[in-house]
Automatic annotation (TrEMBL):
Keywords: Membrane
One Pfam family hit: Band_7
Band domain segment(s): 14-95
InterPro entries: Band-7_stomatin-like, Band_7, Band_7/SPFH_dom_sf, Band_7/stomatin-like_CS, Stomatin_HflK_fam
SUPFAM superfamilies found in the cross-reference section: Band 7/SPFH domain
PANTHER family, alphabetized: AT06885P-RELATED, BAND 7 PROTEIN-RELATED
Gene Ontology cellular component annotations, sorted alphabetically: plasma membrane
Name listed for the protein in its UniProt record: Band 7 domain-containing protein
Length: 159
């Protein structure tokens, strides 16, 4: 004795409901790439539901998945947000590595005063190779302070 009048129709309804429930828990990428596991999971659920009716589900295949347009948009927006988040993480990691490298370079340069002068000359060589007409000569702040303090001394002493 079965508990349903039309087991074929009831199985189809149960399959549609099970499909919606299972696909609702998956991302678009999982739906597109993992059809075999989804089919297997559906078969297990359908077999459990139809066993009391005397119906045995032998095979489930997902051939084509059509999503409503609004769901496609929301899944695409979710995927885009995930891509942007990954890009920001990669950019942040790059900035972190660059700042570490700059710190290490600063430590090396601070150990040897001539290293800064050599780096400056190397930069000037690089700039001149590009045929730029403007070259900027940085003046150390300490030199400016020294000149300012001497000029103030001359003003106060009257020289």
């Amino acid at each position: 004795v079965t508990n349903v009048e039309n087991s074929r129709y009831s199985t189809q309804l149960l399959a549609a409901t099970t499909l919606r429930n299972i696909l609702g828990t998956k991302s678009l990428q999982e739906i597109l790439c993992d059809r075999e596991n989804i089919s297997h999971s559906m078969q297990v659920h359908l077999d459990e539901g139809t066993d009391p009716w005397g119906v045995k589900v032998e095979r489930v295949e997902i051939k084509d998945v059509r999503l409503p347009v609004n769901m496609q948009r929301s899944m695409a927006a979710e995927a885009e947000a995930a891509r942007e988040a990954r890009a920001k993480i990669i950019a942040a990691e790059g900035e972190q590595k660059a700042s570490r490298a700059l710190k290490e370079a600063g430590d090396v340069i601070s150990e040897s005063p001539i290293a800064l002068q050599l780096r400056y000359l190397q930069t000037l060589t690089h700039i001149s190779a590009e045929k730029n007409s403007t070259i900027v000569f940085p003046i150390p702040v300490e030199l400016l302070r020294l000149m300012k303090s001497r000029s103030e001394m001359r003003m106060t002493t009257g020289l």
